Amino acid sequence: MNAKRLSQLIVVGLCLAQARAAGVDLHGVAQAVDRHYDHLRTLQVEFTETYRGAGMDRTESGTLWLKKPGKMRWEYRSPRDKLFLSDGKDAWFYVPSDKQARKTPMRKLDDLRSPLGFLLGKTHLEKELQGLGFAPDIAPLDPGNVVLRGVPRRLGDRITQVLLEVTPENRIRRVQIDDVDGSTTEYQFRQPKEGVAIADTVFQFAPPPGVETIEADVAP
């Protein structure tokens, strides 16, 4: 056994020991996360999105705003500006350098960012994630966090598993989505601001002059 694998096993063992010592149980963790986000009306958080697959390794970052019901705004700033937002009815994807904006009805949207609406209590973890359980083989980003694993019932034909890292305060620290094609998309969240005032205009989009609007059935 190499040193790296041994180190990983030690971290996993410590996490399990800490969970048992704290009396952590799966049902309790899931319910606590549900309660935490069910009570939120708005959330602002910094995010880092990493995609690995098809020979690519891409990392982007920015700010995410969420507001009930169904509103979200992903504002990417690095390595280039782009925008993904929804007003609850339609979704827009806009990259300023492309001079194009794509509009898609939410009911037809097939985008990995959409299921993250559970960050505002949109879903019930134990119902939405089939086979929900602890993931002792996955080391958390921060000491004291626990990692859960499950398969989204509505996306089971596309996603093999979702990993959720949960903090002791019942916040989602990380979401990892593994696709059936072998690719992985990971979202890390930091600096959460809960219950902040966010105007509805934040989730509205009007294409700037000179930008082509494309009515699409599926977002890119």
- Which structural class should the secondary elements be placed in? alpha+beta
CATH uppermost class: Mainly Beta
Q: Which architecture per CATH? A: Clam
DSSP helical segment count: 3
**CATH superfamily descriptor:** Lipoprotein localisation LolA/LolB/LppX
Extended strand count: 12
Order of strands, widest sheet: 7-8-9-10-11-1-2-3-4-5-6-12
Give the distance, in angstroms, between the N- and C-terminal Cα atoms. 43 Å
So what's the overall shape?
Answer: globular
Q: Give the radius of gyration.
A: 18 Å
Number of spatially distinct domains:
1
Beta strand %: 35-45%
Helix content: 10-25%
**Major sheet details:** 12 strands, mixed
Instruction: Sketch the topology as an H/E string, one letter per element.
Output: HHEEEEEEHEEEEEE
- Mean pLDDT score: 85
Uncertain stretches of 5 or more adjacent residues: 4-12, 14-22
CATH fold label:
outer membrane lipoprotein receptor (LolB), chain A
Quick summary:
With 220 residues, this protein is an alpha+beta fold. It has helices at residues 3-21, 26-38, 125-128, and strands spanning 42-53, 56-67, 71-78, 82-86, 90-95, 100-105, 129-134, 146-152, 159-166, 172-179, 184-194, 212-215.
